[in-house]
């Protein structure tokens, strides 16, 4: 098999995978925060919050991710005029463009992935025996305290394994960002088809291998952590 | 449960009928159908359609057999070593085109196809002995073209397919049947973009992984910013809302978009670089390549080439160029 494309400067393979890692990193943090908030809203005693979170989760997770990402650009940015970076005329237009696309993509990934995080955490909340919440309320804790001090710490320990699946899915999902021009790992394949169709099998292999290098250790590490942290009942 | 039994019986009946239709033993088949019908009403229609499709398949096979017996001169000449010409003798071809390129290859809402590439595809097929009714069009997106040919899913591709050395490693090219020039599409009221070297500080849009935008950055405007999308339609949309300043690719493609939004978008018209559009077919099929080259030459010679361009991209104001020399 011909791997000569590896030395071609057109294929910035490390740069592309670095972009994938960055997208994953910021999206994962954002999704964890938003997902926790959504899960808290879904179990909260306030009907309006509960209703909003239910509607949000069920709508957003059922929209294909490609549509979510393209909507970020063509609706939020292009039509509604949301600006996520400052454009100074004549100064580094490429930098402005890359920042804009990156941030729009991250917002899209956060909005989408948070729904799956929320559902995972909610299932974790269900593993905590109801007696614990009742006991917490009995000693006079408010809802936020019950959730923050008693329920969520236990729930998180129960859902590390499902959250690892969400994270692995997110790593692979970041390939959608190329739809709005973020040069992440999948762009290597598109570029390869254009310039080196004769080496396409080798290019596929390299990209697939790159993703395995990212996802496999993530799964193993979080799997081990899940075992260690699980609350024995 | 009841439904499943019925469906199963209907399936058995249809299968038996199909087998018997092939074998020609109508006597025993009749009995099976009768019992099938008694058990399930729906069996009748299923079996009926099986009969009709079997009959039509048989008759079309017969007609195509007679058709190839009459055979076209081009087809039978070197059909032995050319998969394409052998297939063409059978009276049907699968041709790859674009479905989303106005003026070149477009699938219309009513299911018909239009555009210059489509006209070329039809003319070539006819020269190979296949009438328009024998052509099956198949969408071939840029990224899939080599694989479609490689796997034999299409017999040839006419889809703004630029002849390049790397692609020649995977496929054979007939043509060029058209030479396009890279150009820029901008808003109609834009006066400061006059060519590829006036793009510094501007945002230029093209399709992910394609050559045109990178070429501008490398050769003309070093500080132009490149926005990439999956399709040119998205670029044109972004141009209309003003988040990109210009779209670049081949002039004939851009002309199609300019025609969609008359008065709103315009071509800059300072064509740079040559893109030779070829017809892609299976690697090593030299007899087929020669036959297609002859067909393109014939299309140019008898005036259908210019007429096809005039009727497809002409309305966008695109000037019909002098034809290229196929096989060069």
From TrEMBL, chain A:
Topological relation to the membrane, as annotated: Multi-pass membrane protein
MF GO annotations: transmembrane transporter activity
Subcellular locations according to the entry: Cell membrane
Keywords, comma-separated and alphabetical: Amino-acid transport, Cell membrane, Membrane, Transmembrane, Transmembrane helix, Transport
Segments traversing the membrane: 16-41, 62-82, 102-125, 146-170, 176-195, 202-226
InterPro entries noted in UniProt: AA_ABC_transptr_permease_3TM, ArtM/GltK/GlnP/TcyL/YhdX-like, MetI-like, MetI-like_sf
Keyword set includes Hydrolase: no
Protein's UniProt keywords contain Transport: yes
GO biological process: amino acid transport
Pfam families in the cross-refs: BPD_transp_1
Domain ABC transmembrane type-1: 17-222
Cellular-component GO terms for this entry: ATP-binding cassette (ABC) transporter complex
Family: Belongs to the binding-protein-dependent transport system permease family. HisMQ subfamily.
PANTHER family the UniProt entry points to: AMINO-ACID ABC TRANSPORTER PERMEASE PROTEIN YHDX-RELATED, MEMBRANE COMPONENT OF AMINO ACID ABC TRANSPORTER
The protein, known as: Amino acid ABC transporter permease
Species annotation: Nakamurella flavida
UniProtKB/TrEMBL annotation, chain B:
Keywords (A to Z) from UniProt: Signal, Transport
Database matches in InterPro entries: Bact_solute-bind_prot3, SBP_3_CS, Solute-binding_3/MltF_N
GO CC terms, sorted: extracellular region; outer membrane-bounded periplasmic space
Domain of life: Bacteria
CDD domains: PBP2_GluB (cd13690)
Acetylation found in the keyword field: no
Region forming the signal peptide: 1-29
Pfam families: SBP_bac_3 (PF00497)
Alphabetical GO biological process terms: amino acid transport
Solute-binding protein family 3/N-terminal domain span: 92-316
PANTHER family found in the cross-reference section: ABC TRANSPORTER GLUTAMINE-BINDING PROTEIN GLNH, AMINO ACID ABC TRANSPORTER PERMEASE
Protein family (similarity comment): Belongs to the bacterial solute-binding protein 3 family.
Listed name of the protein: Glutamate ABC transporter substrate-binding protein
Organism in which the protein naturally occurs: Nakamurella flavida
């Amino acid at each position: 098999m011909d791997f000569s494309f590896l030395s071609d400067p057109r294929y910035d393979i490390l740069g592309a995978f670095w972009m994938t890692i960055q997208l994953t990193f910021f999206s994962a943090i954002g999704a964890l925060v938003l997902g926790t908030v959504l899960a808290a809203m879904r179990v909260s005693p306030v009907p309006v919050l509960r209703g909003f979170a239910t509607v949000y989760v069920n709508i957003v997770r059922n929209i294909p991710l490609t549509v979510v990402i393209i909507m970020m650009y063509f609706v939020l940015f292009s039509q509604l005029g949301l600006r996520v970076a400052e454009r100074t005329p004549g100064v580094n237009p490429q930098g402005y463009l890359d920042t804009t696309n990156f941030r729009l993509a991250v917002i899209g990934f956060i909005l989408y992935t948070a729904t799956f995080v929320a559902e995972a955490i909610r299932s974790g909340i269900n593993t905590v025996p109801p007696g614990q919440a009742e006991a917490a309320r009995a000693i006079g804790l408010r809802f936020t305290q019950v959730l923050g001090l008693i329920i969520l710490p236990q729930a998180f320990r129960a859902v590390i394994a499902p959250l690892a699946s969400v994270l692995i899915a997110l790593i692979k999902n970041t390939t959608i960002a190329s739809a709005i021009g973020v040069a992440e790992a999948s762009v290597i394949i598109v570029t390869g088809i254009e310039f080196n169709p004769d080496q396409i099998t080798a290019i596929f292999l390299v990209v697939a291998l790159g993703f395995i290098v990212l996802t496999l250790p993530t799964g193993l590490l979080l799997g081990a952590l899940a075992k260690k942290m699980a609350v024995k009942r | 449960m009841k439904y499943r039994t019925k469906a199963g019986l209907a399936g058995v009946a249809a299968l038996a009928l199909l087998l018997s239709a092939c074998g020609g033993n109508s006597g025993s088949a009749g009995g099976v159908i009768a019992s099938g019908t008694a058990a399930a009403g729906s069996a009748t229609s299923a079996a009926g359609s099986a009969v009709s499709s079997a009959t039509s398949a048989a008759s079309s096979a017969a007609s195509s057999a007679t058709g190839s017996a009459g055979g076209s001169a081009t087809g039978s000449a070197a059909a032995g070593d050319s998969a394409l010409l052998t297939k063409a003798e059978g009276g049907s071809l699968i041709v790859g085109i674009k479905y989303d390129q106005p003026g070149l290859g477009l699938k219309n809402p009513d299911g018909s196809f239009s555009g210059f590439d489509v006209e070329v595809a039809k003319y070539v097929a006819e020269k190979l002995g296949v009438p328009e009714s024998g052509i099956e069009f198949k969408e071939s997106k840029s990224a899939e073209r080599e694989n479609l040919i490689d796997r034999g899913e299409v017999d040839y591709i006419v889809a703004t397919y630029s002849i390049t050395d790397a692609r020649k490693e995977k496929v054979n090219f007939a043509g060029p049947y058209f030479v396009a020039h890279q150009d820029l599409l901008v808003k109609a009221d834009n006066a400061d973009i006059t060519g590829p070297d006036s793009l510094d500080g501007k945002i230029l849009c093209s399709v992910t992984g394609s050559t045109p935008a990178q070429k501008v950055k490398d050769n003309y405007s070093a500080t132009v910013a490149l926005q990439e999308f999956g399709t040119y339609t998205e670029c044109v949309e972004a141009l209309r809302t003003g988040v990109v300043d210009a779209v670049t690719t081949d002039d004939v493609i851009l002309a199609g978009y300019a025609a969609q939004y008359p008065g709103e978008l315009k071509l800059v018209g300072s064509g740079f670089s040559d893109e030779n559009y070829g017809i892609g077919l299976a690697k090593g099929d030299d007899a087929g390549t020669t036959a297609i080259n002859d067909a393109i030459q014939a299309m140019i010679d008898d005036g259908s080439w210019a007429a096809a361009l005039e009727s497809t991209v002409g309305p966008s104001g695109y000037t019909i160029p002098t034809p290229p020399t196929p096989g060069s």
